[in-house]
Amino acid sequence: MASWSEFAVDEPRLADEIRLLMQQYGPGFGYLATVRADGAPRVHPVSPVITDDGLWCFVIDSPKRRDLERDGRYALHSFPPEDSDDEAYVAGRARPVTDPATVAKLARISRAAPHGDWRLFEFTVEAAMLTRRDPVAQPGAGRPQVRVWLDPRGAAPARRDSLVGEGRRGRHGFDTRRPAA
C-alpha cells in the first residue's frame, strides 16, 4: 500500500485536487467509513490531516477507533462543497502511529487537545478518486469527469478503455481520467 506521499509523487495533480477538497473549509473535513465487527459499514465525520508526509487522523476512543484497531480498512470521502457536487475519495488501510515525535508534530499541526483520549492513525492509499461535475450544466446534461488512481503494487491490471488514449494514463498505466461508468 502506498503512503500519501508516494501517491502524491505518482499523481501530484490528483493528490493536490483531493487535498483541496478535503481541506476546503480550512482543517480537513470528511466522512470516514470503517468496517464493524459484523462486517457492516460505519460512517463518522472526521478531521483528516494531510501533510507532505502522509494522510493522518486523530481518532478518539469510539466504535470507529475500535474498528480501525481491529480491521484497518477504511474509506474517506470529502464533505460536499457548497457550489458543486464535486467529490474526493481515498481508501486503503489505517495503521496506528506510536512514534512520539510524529504524534507530537501532528498534534501541534492539527491543534489536537494535548490530553485527549485519541490515537493517531496513518492512512495508506490503495485507491483514490476525484469526481468533478460542471456546475453550469443542466442536471443530467453531461457526464462527470472521474479520475481514478490505484496503487500499482496491489491493484489488478488497468482496464484498457478505448475512450482513453495512452497520453491519459498515469506513470504506472492506470487511467487517471476515466469517464464515469
Secondary structure blueprint with pairings:
Blueprint: H1 4-10, H2 12-22, E1 30-35, E2 41-46, E3 49-50, E4 55-60, H3 63-70, E5 73-78, E6 87-96, H4 100-110, E7 118-123, E8 127-132, E9 145-150
Helix pairs in contact: 1-2
Key phrases:
alpha+beta, globular, 20% helix, nine-stranded antiparallel β-sheet, single chain
Q: How is this structure best summarized?
A:
The chain has 181 residues and is an alpha+beta fold. It has four helices and nine strands.
Would you tell me the structural class of the helices and strands?
alpha+beta
* Biggest beta sheet summary: 9 strands, antiparallel
Helix amount: 10-25%
Q: For the residues shown, what is the average pLDDT?
A: 84
Low-confidence stretches: 156-181
H and E string = HHEEEEHEEHEEE
Content of β-strand: 25-35%
User: What gap, in angstroms, lies between the N and C termini?
Assistant: 25 Å
Number of strands: 9
Helix segment tally = 4
Tell me what you see in this structure.
- This protein is α+β, with helices and mostly antiparallel strands and 181 residues long.
- The protein is 20% helix and 30% strand.
- Strands 1, 2, 3, 4, 5, 6, 7, 8 and 9 form a 9-stranded antiparallel sheet that branches.
- β1 and β2 form a beta hairpin.
- The longest helix has 11 residues, at 12-22.
- Residues 156-181 have low confidence and may be disordered.
